[in-house]
Design a protein that fits this description.
Layout (H helix, E strand, L loop, with lengths): L1 E9 L3 E10 L2 E10 L9 H14 L5 E6 L5 E16 L2 E13 L6 E8 L4 E6 L5 E3 L31 H24 L2 H16 L4 H10 L19 H6 L1
């Protein structure tokens, strides 16, 4: 038997697909690089079901299009389209279902299509791949499903767990993008204001020469000399009180 594991990692230039294939006890790892533009509308298999459930709960019934990895590990277009809903009988209870058709456009093969029906609260009722004799179907009415249409929805309380944002590919991607954006903005600002480096250099040099015990008061005195509205007083008043203990320690 052949097993494979597909993982997407963020790199400095974009994304990397890591494919681990195990066959006959031998493990093979292959990688492929993708740019940020290529992955702009990418949706993972894990997010696929979440997207469909949210579409049902929020009432989004228009066609949507994204990118996914096809069976040959190439980026392919995937579309989500509403299909005709119908009533079903489950445990002697008539329920309304809402349908979604998911279609992956494989480049060298026929499109792969699934028809999925959900209950009104987002629980999946059936899932079937077109052309396949195998399909999934819910056995019982979900425990927290509300049968009374006039009642408020009651969702289970899963509590608040610790946020491991470093393990979330989307949040980590936003963090890295924002980090590079801020770094570039700060560098450009320093280039536009070369006097900033000179001012900070003078302050640090004066600070190390005087070694004041109260650095905050010393900084306030130092930088107040650049203010046109500051109260007139002897320049660097607090800097005149040299930290004698610091000098003795030298």
């Amino acid at each position: 038997k052949q097993w494979y594991q597909r993982r997407v990692a963020i790199t400095a230039g974009g994304y990397q697909l890591v494919l681990t294939t195990t066959e006959g006890g031998t493990e093979t790892v292959t990688t492929e690089e993708f740019t940020k533009d290529e992955m702009a509308r990418f949706i993972s298999e894990g997010a696929n079901l979440v997207l469909q459930r949210l579409s049902i709960i929020l009432g989004v019934h228009s066609r949507m299009s994204f990118n996914v990895f096809s069976t040959d590990n190439a980026l392919a277009n995937v579309s989500y389209s509403p299909i005709e809903s119908h009533s079903v009988l489950l445990q002697n209870v008539t329920l309304e279902t809402i349908g979604i058709e998911r279609c992956v456009d494989n480049k060298d093969e026929n499109p792969t299509t699934w028809k999925i029906y959900f209950l009104s609260d987002g629980h999946m009722y059936t899932r079937a791949q077109v052309g396949s004799p195998v399909y999934m179907k819910i056995k019982d009415i979900p425990e927290n499903f509300m049968k009374d249409e006039d009642a408020d929805w009651v969702f289970p309380d899963f509590g608040k767990g610790k946020l491991h944002w470093e393990d979330d590919i989307e949040m980590l991607s936003h963090f890295l993008d924002r980090k590079e954006e801020l770094k570039e903005d700060h560098v450009n600002y320093m280039k536009r204001h070369p006097e900033l480096k000179a001012i900070l250099g003078d302050f640090l040099q004066f600070l190390l020469m005087r070694k004041p015990s109260d650095v905050i008061e010393f900084a306030a005195d130092f930088f107040s000399s650049y203010s046109a509205t500051a109260e007139m007083k002897p320049s660097f008043a607090h800097s005149n009180f040299v930290n004698q203990s610091a000098i003795r320690s030298e």
